[in-house]
Each structure stands twice: as C-alpha cells, then as structure tokens.
Write a structure and sequence with these properties.
Length: 224
C-alpha cells in the first residue's frame, strides 16, 4: 500500500517536458520512501511565462513536491494519528528540499515548517489506484492552498546529483548562510550581515582544519 504525499511549494521548478526522471528509494522508520520528480497542473498558473526552456528543451513549471511512503498496511482509523507519522513526513520532504536547494544553489528553496499551509496524503494501492472506501477509515488527509512565487530549474542531471549525496546530508554551514543571504535580497542590510557571518564561519572552519591556535579576531603571533 502507498501513502502519497503532495505538497505545493512556494516556488516553481522548471522541468524539461520530455525528461525521464528516476525514482529514488530509501528506508526509514519501517517505511520504504520513494522520491518522485515534482509534478504540475496542466495549463500552469496565470503568472507563468508563455514559453519556458531548460538547456534548450521545452519545459513546464512544476510546483508540487511528491513523495510515496510504502508499507504493507497503514493505520487509517480516524480517531488515531495518521500514518506515516508527521515527523517522518516532514523529515522526508525537507531532506529532498535540502538537497535541491544546495545542488541548484537556489535560495528560494527553503525547508517546510509544520504546520504546512497545504498538503495532501492519499492512501492508494501499490499501483496507485484508489482504495475501496471503508467506513471509519481515512482515504486521505489534507489542508488549504498555498501561493507559488518563483522558480528554479531541475534537470535529470541535477536530480541524479541530488541523489548522489549521502544519507543524512548536511551542507556546510557557510553555504546555508550564503544562500540565506542571497534569499534576503533586495534587503541589503540583512544580506550583508549574513554574508559576513558566512565568511567568518568559513574562515573558522579552515583554521580549525589546519589546527591554527587562534580564534577569529585574535592576533596571530609568529616567532621570529
């Protein structure tokens, strides 16, 4: 059985129309988790450009994050917390977004903080067909809509690179700060502060690696 998660994002992803994306899987918390390429609604939003291309290929704007959770059976009784648990759903979604953010260097890609403004978790058979409705059992869970405001490009190469990163990938802290700084523009003051912090964190990491016996801002005494 599948629990299919769909989460509209606050940005669009430009995806080549003819691209064939691989589905990547891993296991966590007793579930098989399948990371699917983002999807879109035919026709796009009213704010979408008339024509989009990625690497010279016609593209569409996708803005729906999709993840499947597979298990023999899910707990679907209305009076119980939904299955898979909320923490696992959030961790799976944010793991995918974290890798997308840092492989594409896209500051607008940010982690989703619960409670999400819009999401849908639909239970289906393994082949994606709807389950037979049963009294007292949920067929789906969900919440209200979210607005899309910007976009990044996603190719099969980027998708593959994302999935070459190790399990539990965490980007260097200075990269996180630098992307946050870019994301704050045109708020120049905040962007400068974050950029300066990123530089300090980077220098401190380099000094720690080479074993320099000093802290940022302290003079270095060199024996003559």
């Amino acid at each position: 059985m599948l629990a299919r998660l769909s989460v509209p994002l606050a940005f669009d992803i430009a995806v080549p129309k003819m691209a064939l994306f691989t589905t990547y899987t891993y296991r966590s918390g007793g579930y098989e988790i399948l990371e699917l390429p983002p999807s879109y609604v035919e026709g796009g939003s009213v704010s979408s450009p008339a024509e989009i291309s990625v690497d010279g290929e016609p593209a569409v704007l996708a803005n729906i994050l999709r993840i499947d959770f597979r298990k023999d059976a899910f707990e679907r009784r209305h009076e119980l917390p939904f299955d898979p648990p909320q923490d696992l759903i959030a961790a799976a979604a944010n793991s995918l977004l974290l890798r997308l953010r840092h492989v594409t260097n896209a500051p607008q890609v940010r982690s989703l903080r619960l409670p999400w403004r819009e999401w849908r978790l639909e239970y289906t058979n393994d082949d994606g067909t709807p389950l037979v409705p049963m009294k007292g059992l949920a067929s789906a869970h969900g919440a209200i809509p979210l607005l899309s405001v910007s976009f990044v490009a996603l190719t099969t190469e980027i998708w593959a690179t994302m999935h070459q990163l190790p399990d539990g990938y965490e980007p260097p802290p200075w990269e996180v700060l630098l992307l946050d700084a870019i994301g704050e523009l045109p708020n120049v003051g905040t962007a400068i502060v974050l950029s300066a912090t990123a530089l300090e964190v980077f220098i401190a990491a380099i000094l720690n690696r080479v074993g320099a016996p000093c802290l940022i801002g302290e003079p270095v005494v060199v024996d003559q």
